[in-house]
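To: structure desk
From: M.T.
Subject: fold request, one chain
Message: Could you run this one when you get a chance? Sequence is below, nothing fancy, just the single chain.
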Amino acid sequence: MDRRKLLRLALAGLSSASLQRLSFAESRDTVRPNIILVMSDDQGWGDTGYNGHPVLQTPHLDAMARTGLLFERFYSGAPVCSPTRGSCITGRHPFRYGIFGANAANGPFEPSKYPLPDQEVTLAEVLKRHGYTTGHFGKWHLGDLTGSQTCTPSQNGFDEWFSTVRKVSTVDPEGYVENGKEIKTPLMGDDSKIIMDRAEPFIRKSIAQNNPFFAVVWFHTPHLPVYATPDYQALYADHTERESHYWGAITAMDAQIGRLRSMLDDLNISGNTMLWFCSDNGPTHVQNGPGSTGGLRGSKGQLFEGGIRVPGILVWPDKIKSPRTTPIPCSTSDYFPTIIDYLSETKTAPQPLDGISLRPLIEGGTTKRGKFIGFEHREGAALIGDRYKLIANIESDQLSTPMLFDIIADPNESKDIASENTDTVRSMMEYLRAWQASCTESRNGKDYGS
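Reply: Done. C-alpha coordinates follow.
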Protein backbone atom coordinates (compact mmCIF):
# COMPACT_ATOMS: atom_id res chain seq x y z
CA MET A 1 0.00 0.00 0.00
CA ASP A 2 1.50 3.37 -0.96
CA ARG A 3 1.78 6.16 1.56
CA ARG A 4 -0.92 8.30 -0.01
CA LYS A 5 -3.48 5.54 0.51
CA LEU A 6 -2.11 5.14 4.01
CA LEU A 7 -2.70 8.82 4.70
CA ARG A 8 -6.28 8.60 3.47
CA LEU A 9 -7.00 5.54 5.61
CA ALA A 10 -5.39 7.11 8.64
CA LEU A 11 -7.46 10.25 8.28
CA ALA A 12 -10.60 8.18 7.77
CA GLY A 13 -9.97 6.50 11.11
CA LEU A 14 -9.75 9.72 13.13
CA SER A 15 -12.51 10.64 15.51
CA SER A 16 -14.94 13.39 14.52
CA ALA A 17 -13.32 15.68 17.10
CA SER A 18 -9.91 15.04 15.58
CA LEU A 19 -11.23 15.65 12.10
CA GLN A 20 -12.63 18.96 13.26
CA ARG A 21 -9.17 19.93 14.50
CA LEU A 22 -7.69 18.96 11.16
CA SER A 23 -10.15 21.12 9.24
CA PHE A 24 -8.07 24.26 9.42
CA ALA A 25 -10.44 26.04 7.04
CA GLU A 26 -13.19 25.81 9.68
CA SER A 27 -11.25 26.04 12.94
CA ARG A 28 -8.14 27.84 14.12
CA ASP A 29 -7.88 26.00 17.44
CA THR A 30 -4.62 24.43 16.35
CA VAL A 31 -1.74 26.86 16.09
CA ARG A 32 0.16 26.38 12.84
CA PRO A 33 3.70 27.62 13.35
CA ASN A 34 6.04 28.09 10.45
CA ILE A 35 8.68 25.37 10.55
CA ILE A 36 12.28 25.51 9.34
CA LEU A 37 14.72 22.61 9.60
CA VAL A 38 18.26 23.86 9.03
CA MET A 39 21.06 21.32 8.88
CA SER A 40 24.77 21.52 8.19
CA ASP A 41 26.81 18.65 6.76
CA ASP A 42 29.66 17.03 8.75
CA GLN A 43 29.82 19.88 11.27
CA GLY A 44 31.21 18.61 14.56
CA TRP A 45 29.85 19.33 18.02
CA GLY A 46 32.89 21.52 18.62
CA ASP A 47 32.61 23.40 15.32
CA THR A 48 30.74 26.37 16.80
CA GLY A 49 31.76 29.40 18.78
CA TYR A 50 29.16 28.76 21.47
CA ASN A 51 30.62 25.31 22.16
CA GLY A 52 33.99 26.83 22.83
CA HIS A 53 35.89 26.76 19.55
CA PRO A 54 38.95 28.98 20.05
CA VAL A 55 39.10 30.34 16.48
CA LEU A 56 35.92 29.68 14.48
CA GLN A 57 33.45 32.58 14.22
CA THR A 58 29.74 31.63 14.29
CA PRO A 59 28.07 34.78 15.65
CA HIS A 60 24.57 33.94 14.41
CA LEU A 61 24.56 30.40 15.78
CA ASP A 62 25.95 31.83 19.00
CA ALA A 63 23.04 34.28 19.13
CA MET A 64 20.57 31.43 18.61
CA ALA A 65 22.21 29.52 21.45
CA ARG A 66 21.85 32.57 23.72
CA THR A 67 18.15 33.10 22.96
CA GLY A 68 16.61 29.68 22.36
CA LEU A 69 16.65 26.13 23.65
CA LEU A 70 20.21 24.84 23.52
CA PHE A 71 20.66 21.07 23.49
CA GLU A 72 23.78 19.88 25.28
CA ARG A 73 23.14 16.35 24.01
CA PHE A 74 21.59 16.47 20.57
CA TYR A 75 22.09 13.39 18.39
CA SER A 76 21.94 12.87 14.65
CA GLY A 77 19.94 9.82 13.62
CA ALA A 78 23.13 8.13 12.40
CA PRO A 79 26.86 8.83 12.11
CA VAL A 80 26.52 9.39 8.34
CA CYS A 81 24.42 11.53 6.05
CA SER A 82 21.49 9.79 4.31
CA PRO A 83 20.16 7.88 7.33
CA THR A 84 20.04 11.03 9.44
CA ARG A 85 18.13 12.88 6.72
CA GLY A 86 15.56 10.11 6.63
CA SER A 87 15.10 10.31 10.40
CA CYS A 88 14.48 14.08 10.20
CA ILE A 89 11.42 13.79 7.99
CA THR A 90 9.98 10.43 9.15
CA GLY A 91 10.56 10.30 12.91
CA ARG A 92 11.83 6.76 12.44
CA HIS A 93 15.21 5.12 12.56
CA PRO A 94 16.49 4.56 9.01
CA PHE A 95 17.06 0.85 9.60
CA ARG A 96 13.26 0.53 9.77
CA TYR A 97 13.01 1.28 6.06
CA GLY A 98 16.35 0.26 4.66
CA ILE A 99 18.60 3.32 4.55
CA PHE A 100 21.72 1.65 5.90
CA GLY A 101 24.34 4.20 4.89
CA ALA A 102 25.17 7.14 2.68
CA ASN A 103 23.62 6.90 -0.78
CA ALA A 104 25.96 6.10 -3.68
CA ALA A 105 28.61 4.86 -1.28
CA ASN A 106 30.54 3.26 -4.17
CA GLY A 107 31.12 6.54 -5.96
CA PRO A 108 29.71 10.05 -6.42
CA PHE A 109 28.10 9.26 -9.76
CA GLU A 110 26.58 5.89 -8.86
CA PRO A 111 22.78 5.60 -8.60
CA SER A 112 21.37 6.09 -5.13
CA LYS A 113 21.68 2.90 -3.20
CA TYR A 114 19.14 3.61 -0.46
CA PRO A 115 16.24 5.75 -1.70
CA LEU A 116 13.53 6.62 0.79
CA PRO A 117 10.77 4.01 0.30
CA ASP A 118 7.45 5.26 -1.00
CA GLN A 119 5.64 3.73 1.98
CA GLU A 120 7.25 6.12 4.42
CA VAL A 121 5.15 9.13 5.42
CA THR A 122 7.12 12.38 5.52
CA LEU A 123 6.64 15.58 7.47
CA ALA A 124 6.06 17.44 4.22
CA GLU A 125 3.15 15.17 3.32
CA VAL A 126 1.54 15.54 6.73
CA LEU A 127 2.00 19.30 6.83
CA LYS A 128 0.41 19.72 3.41
CA ARG A 129 -2.75 18.26 4.96
CA HIS A 130 -2.67 21.24 7.31
CA GLY A 131 -2.40 23.85 4.58
CA TYR A 132 1.37 24.31 4.61
CA THR A 133 3.43 25.14 1.58
CA THR A 134 6.53 22.98 1.58
CA GLY A 135 10.01 23.48 0.18
CA HIS A 136 13.36 21.68 0.16
CA PHE A 137 16.62 23.52 -0.50
CA GLY A 138 20.11 22.02 -0.58
CA LYS A 139 21.34 18.50 -0.12
CA TRP A 140 18.69 15.79 -0.54
CA HIS A 141 20.65 12.51 -0.47
CA LEU A 142 17.51 10.40 -0.14
CA GLY A 143 17.31 9.26 -3.74
CA ASP A 144 17.93 10.28 -7.34
CA LEU A 145 16.48 13.49 -8.74
CA THR A 146 16.62 12.40 -12.38
CA GLY A 147 16.66 9.12 -14.28
CA SER A 148 14.40 6.10 -14.44
CA GLN A 149 14.15 5.47 -10.68
CA THR A 150 13.68 8.78 -8.96
CA CYS A 151 12.93 9.63 -5.36
CA THR A 152 12.61 13.39 -5.47
CA PRO A 153 11.39 15.95 -2.94
CA SER A 154 8.21 16.41 -4.99
CA GLN A 155 7.50 12.68 -4.64
CA ASN A 156 7.78 13.14 -0.89
CA GLY A 157 5.46 16.07 -0.33
CA PHE A 158 7.53 19.13 -1.26
CA ASP A 159 5.89 21.77 -3.45
CA GLU A 160 9.14 23.49 -4.43
CA TRP A 161 12.69 22.27 -4.39
CA PHE A 162 16.19 23.25 -5.33
CA SER A 163 18.27 20.23 -4.46
CA THR A 164 21.30 18.06 -5.15
CA VAL A 165 21.43 14.30 -5.07
CA ARG A 166 24.50 14.33 -2.82
CA LYS A 167 27.54 16.43 -1.92
CA VAL A 168 28.76 19.33 -4.05
CA SER A 169 31.57 21.84 -3.71
CA THR A 170 30.85 24.60 -1.22
CA VAL A 171 32.01 27.18 -3.79
CA ASP A 172 30.82 27.29 -7.44
CA PRO A 173 28.68 24.15 -7.05
CA GLU A 174 27.21 22.13 -9.89
CA GLY A 175 24.62 19.37 -9.84
CA TYR A 176 21.47 21.19 -8.73
CA VAL A 177 18.02 20.24 -9.92
CA GLU A 178 15.23 22.81 -9.51
CA ASN A 179 11.68 21.49 -9.49
CA GLY A 180 12.72 18.64 -11.78
CA LYS A 181 14.82 20.71 -14.18
CA GLU A 182 18.56 20.14 -14.22
CA ILE A 183 20.79 23.19 -13.92
CA LYS A 184 23.56 22.14 -16.28
CA THR A 185 26.12 24.87 -15.60
CA PRO A 186 27.92 25.60 -12.33
CA LEU A 187 26.43 28.24 -10.07
CA MET A 188 28.92 30.87 -9.01
CA GLY A 189 29.75 31.84 -5.45
CA ASP A 190 29.24 30.48 -1.96
CA ASP A 191 26.96 27.47 -1.93
CA SER A 192 25.22 28.42 1.34
CA LYS A 193 24.24 31.77 -0.15
CA ILE A 194 23.05 30.07 -3.34
CA ILE A 195 20.78 27.84 -1.25
CA MET A 196 19.40 30.75 0.76
CA ASP A 197 18.83 32.72 -2.45
CA ARG A 198 16.19 30.06 -3.30
CA ALA A 199 14.79 29.55 0.19
CA GLU A 200 14.16 33.25 0.83
CA PRO A 201 11.68 33.89 -2.02
CA PHE A 202 9.87 30.66 -1.13
CA ILE A 203 9.34 31.92 2.41
CA ARG A 204 8.36 35.41 1.31
CA LYS A 205 5.85 34.05 -1.20
CA SER A 206 4.27 31.77 1.40
CA ILE A 207 3.78 34.65 3.81
CA ALA A 208 2.44 36.91 1.04
CA GLN A 209 -0.15 34.23 0.28
CA ASN A 210 -0.99 33.90 3.99
CA ASN A 211 0.16 30.28 4.15
CA PRO A 212 2.21 28.67 6.90
CA PHE A 213 5.35 27.14 5.46
CA PHE A 214 7.67 24.20 6.01
CA ALA A 215 11.18 24.87 4.73
CA VAL A 216 13.96 22.27 4.83
CA VAL A 217 17.32 24.01 4.35
CA TRP A 218 20.11 21.43 4.22
CA PHE A 219 23.48 23.08 3.62
CA HIS A 220 26.46 21.17 2.19
CA THR A 221 28.94 22.96 4.44
CA PRO A 222 31.44 21.83 5.70
CA HIS A 223 31.40 18.49 3.83
CA LEU A 224 34.33 17.87 1.52
CA PRO A 225 35.14 19.33 -0.98
CA VAL A 226 35.00 22.34 1.31
CA TYR A 227 36.10 25.77 0.12
CA ALA A 228 35.50 29.33 1.24
CA THR A 229 35.20 32.38 -0.97
CA PRO A 230 38.17 34.78 -0.62
CA ASP A 231 36.36 37.18 1.73
CA TYR A 232 35.55 34.44 4.23
CA GLN A 233 38.88 32.66 3.82
CA ALA A 234 40.59 35.94 4.65
CA LEU A 235 39.04 35.85 8.13
CA TYR A 236 41.43 33.00 8.91
CA ALA A 237 44.46 34.13 6.93
CA ASP A 238 46.81 33.38 9.82
CA HIS A 239 45.96 29.68 9.69
CA THR A 240 46.60 26.86 7.25
CA GLU A 241 44.87 26.85 3.90
CA ARG A 242 42.79 23.84 4.89
CA GLU A 243 41.69 25.52 8.12
CA SER A 244 40.90 28.82 6.41
CA HIS A 245 38.67 27.09 3.86
CA TYR A 246 36.92 24.89 6.45
CA TRP A 247 36.29 27.63 8.99
CA GLY A 248 35.58 30.22 6.32
CA ALA A 249 32.87 28.01 4.80
CA ILE A 250 31.22 27.54 8.20
CA THR A 251 31.29 31.28 8.89
CA ALA A 252 29.76 31.88 5.44
CA MET A 253 26.98 29.40 6.26
CA ASP A 254 26.49 31.10 9.62
CA ALA A 255 26.01 34.41 7.80
CA GLN A 256 23.17 32.88 5.78
CA ILE A 257 21.54 31.66 8.97
CA GLY A 258 21.75 35.24 10.19
CA ARG A 259 20.20 36.37 6.92
CA LEU A 260 17.36 33.91 7.46
CA ARG A 261 16.68 35.18 10.97
CA SER A 262 16.72 38.79 9.82
CA MET A 263 14.16 37.97 7.14
CA LEU A 264 11.88 36.34 9.73
CA ASP A 265 12.12 39.51 11.81
CA ASP A 266 11.44 41.73 8.79
CA LEU A 267 8.35 39.68 7.96
CA ASN A 268 7.24 39.85 11.61
CA ILE A 269 6.97 36.05 11.79
CA SER A 270 9.95 35.06 13.93
CA GLY A 271 7.78 34.61 17.04
CA ASN A 272 5.62 31.92 15.48
CA THR A 273 8.41 30.15 13.61
CA MET A 274 10.04 26.95 14.81
CA LEU A 275 13.66 27.30 13.70
CA TRP A 276 15.70 24.14 14.30
CA PHE A 277 19.42 23.76 13.67
CA CYS A 278 21.67 20.71 13.80
CA SER A 279 24.35 18.82 11.88
CA ASP A 280 23.78 15.49 10.13
CA ASN A 281 26.71 13.75 11.87
CA GLY A 282 30.10 14.44 13.39
CA PRO A 283 33.14 15.78 11.55
CA THR A 284 35.32 13.75 9.23
CA HIS A 285 39.07 13.20 9.53
CA VAL A 286 39.35 14.73 12.98
CA GLN A 287 42.92 13.47 13.41
CA ASN A 288 44.20 15.14 10.23
CA GLY A 289 41.77 17.98 9.64
CA PRO A 290 40.22 21.05 11.23
CA GLY A 291 36.89 19.45 12.18
CA SER A 292 36.26 19.45 15.93
CA THR A 293 34.20 17.22 18.21
CA GLY A 294 35.00 19.46 21.17
CA GLY A 295 36.99 16.64 22.74
CA LEU A 296 34.35 13.95 22.29
CA ARG A 297 35.61 10.50 21.30
CA GLY A 298 35.31 9.37 17.68
CA SER A 299 34.17 11.09 14.48
CA LYS A 300 31.93 10.64 11.45
CA GLY A 301 31.06 7.01 10.79
CA GLN A 302 31.38 5.96 14.44
CA LEU A 303 28.83 5.53 17.21
CA PHE A 304 31.01 7.18 19.81
CA GLU A 305 29.80 10.63 20.84
CA GLY A 306 32.01 12.42 18.32
CA GLY A 307 30.19 10.68 15.46
CA ILE A 308 26.61 11.35 16.55
CA ARG A 309 26.49 14.17 19.11
CA VAL A 310 26.06 17.35 17.08
CA PRO A 311 25.21 21.02 17.58
CA GLY A 312 21.50 21.40 18.27
CA ILE A 313 19.35 24.51 18.84
CA LEU A 314 15.65 25.40 18.69
CA VAL A 315 14.54 29.03 18.51
CA TRP A 316 10.78 29.64 18.81
CA PRO A 317 10.12 32.93 20.66
CA ASP A 318 6.38 32.41 21.14
CA LYS A 319 7.04 29.18 23.05
CA ILE A 320 10.62 29.62 24.30
CA LYS A 321 10.47 33.05 25.86
CA SER A 322 13.78 32.88 27.73
CA PRO A 323 16.99 31.01 26.92
CA ARG A 324 17.47 27.55 28.35
CA THR A 325 20.02 24.78 28.11
CA THR A 326 18.94 21.17 28.48
CA PRO A 327 21.05 18.09 29.25
CA ILE A 328 18.22 15.79 28.14
CA PRO A 329 19.25 13.66 25.14
CA CYS A 330 17.28 14.53 22.00
CA SER A 331 17.47 13.41 18.39
CA THR A 332 16.63 14.27 14.80
CA SER A 333 13.96 11.56 15.03
CA ASP A 334 12.15 13.82 17.50
CA TYR A 335 11.30 16.45 14.87
CA PHE A 336 8.36 14.53 13.41
CA PRO A 337 6.54 13.62 16.65
CA THR A 338 7.16 17.08 18.14
CA ILE A 339 5.71 18.91 15.17
CA ILE A 340 2.67 16.69 14.75
CA ASP A 341 2.01 16.96 18.50
CA TYR A 342 1.70 20.72 18.17
CA LEU A 343 -0.70 20.20 15.27
CA SER A 344 -2.84 17.72 17.24
CA GLU A 345 -2.00 15.22 14.52
CA THR A 346 -1.16 11.73 15.76
CA LYS A 347 -2.43 9.14 13.31
CA THR A 348 -0.90 9.79 9.92
CA ALA A 349 2.46 8.10 10.48
CA PRO A 350 3.25 4.40 10.53
CA GLN A 351 4.09 3.01 13.92
CA PRO A 352 6.37 2.71 15.68
CA LEU A 353 7.99 6.11 15.74
CA ASP A 354 11.46 6.10 17.24
CA GLY A 355 11.40 9.76 18.18
CA ILE A 356 9.34 11.34 20.93
CA SER A 357 7.51 14.64 21.18
CA LEU A 358 9.70 17.27 22.80
CA ARG A 359 6.68 19.40 23.64
CA PRO A 360 7.01 18.75 27.40
CA LEU A 361 10.65 19.81 27.21
CA ILE A 362 9.89 22.89 25.11
CA GLU A 363 7.23 23.93 27.59
CA GLY A 364 9.46 23.29 30.59
CA GLY A 365 7.56 20.33 32.00
CA THR A 366 10.12 17.52 32.03
CA THR A 367 13.57 16.79 33.41
CA LYS A 368 14.36 13.55 31.59
CA ARG A 369 13.73 11.79 28.30
CA GLY A 370 12.54 8.50 29.74
CA LYS A 371 13.05 6.56 26.50
CA PHE A 372 16.20 5.17 24.92
CA ILE A 373 17.54 6.41 21.58
CA GLY A 374 18.67 3.49 19.43
CA PHE A 375 21.40 3.54 16.79
CA GLU A 376 22.68 1.03 14.29
CA HIS A 377 25.46 1.48 11.75
CA ARG A 378 27.38 -1.18 9.87
CA GLU A 379 28.27 -3.82 12.46
CA GLY A 380 27.71 -1.57 15.44
CA ALA A 381 24.74 -0.64 17.59
CA ALA A 382 24.26 1.78 20.45
CA LEU A 383 21.63 2.74 22.98
CA ILE A 384 21.54 6.10 24.72
CA GLY A 385 19.49 6.89 27.80
CA ASP A 386 19.30 9.81 30.19
CA ARG A 387 22.50 8.66 31.91
CA TYR A 388 24.01 5.56 30.37
CA LYS A 389 25.19 4.70 26.88
CA LEU A 390 25.73 1.18 25.61
CA ILE A 391 27.84 0.39 22.53
CA ALA A 392 27.96 -3.13 21.16
CA ASN A 393 29.87 -4.92 18.39
CA ILE A 394 31.96 -2.12 16.94
CA GLU A 395 33.75 -3.84 14.10
CA SER A 396 36.62 -1.36 13.82
CA ASP A 397 37.54 -1.81 17.49
CA GLN A 398 37.06 -5.61 17.34
CA LEU A 399 34.94 -5.64 20.46
CA SER A 400 33.17 -8.86 21.35
CA THR A 401 31.52 -7.49 24.51
CA PRO A 402 29.44 -4.35 25.01
CA MET A 403 30.85 -1.16 26.47
CA LEU A 404 28.93 1.00 28.93
CA PHE A 405 29.57 4.66 29.66
CA ASP A 406 28.12 7.09 32.15
CA ILE A 407 27.66 9.95 29.70
CA ILE A 408 26.78 12.45 32.41
CA ALA A 409 29.99 11.85 34.35
CA ASP A 410 32.13 10.83 31.37
CA PRO A 411 30.98 12.54 28.14
CA ASN A 412 34.29 11.71 26.46
CA GLU A 413 33.68 7.96 26.92
CA SER A 414 37.06 7.44 28.51
CA LYS A 415 36.06 4.76 31.03
CA ASP A 416 34.14 1.59 30.18
CA ILE A 417 32.08 0.69 33.27
CA ALA A 418 30.35 -2.40 31.84
CA SER A 419 32.09 -4.87 34.15
CA GLU A 420 30.87 -3.10 37.28
CA ASN A 421 27.30 -2.55 36.04
CA THR A 422 26.32 -5.96 34.69
CA ASP A 423 22.62 -5.59 35.49
CA THR A 424 22.44 -2.31 33.57
CA VAL A 425 24.28 -3.87 30.62
CA ARG A 426 21.97 -6.88 30.62
CA SER A 427 18.76 -4.82 30.65
CA MET A 428 20.03 -2.41 27.99
CA MET A 429 21.15 -5.30 25.77
CA GLU A 430 17.69 -6.84 26.05
CA TYR A 431 16.13 -3.55 25.02
CA LEU A 432 18.61 -3.13 22.17
CA ARG A 433 17.93 -6.60 20.78
CA ALA A 434 14.18 -6.04 20.95
CA TRP A 435 14.55 -2.69 19.20
CA GLN A 436 16.71 -4.21 16.44
CA ALA A 437 14.13 -6.97 15.97
CA SER A 438 11.41 -4.33 15.69
CA CYS A 439 13.41 -2.51 13.00
CA THR A 440 13.75 -5.78 11.07
CA GLU A 441 10.00 -6.36 11.28
CA SER A 442 9.40 -2.84 9.96
CA ARG A 443 11.70 -3.43 6.99
CA ASN A 444 9.82 -6.63 6.26
CA GLY A 445 6.54 -4.73 5.92
CA LYS A 446 4.86 -5.19 9.29
CA ASP A 447 4.10 -1.49 9.68
CA TYR A 448 2.11 -1.40 6.44
CA GLY A 449 0.12 -4.58 6.78
CA SER A 450 2.10 -6.57 4.22
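Reply (cont.): The two ends are 8 Å apart (CA to CA). Let me know if you need anything else for the meeting.
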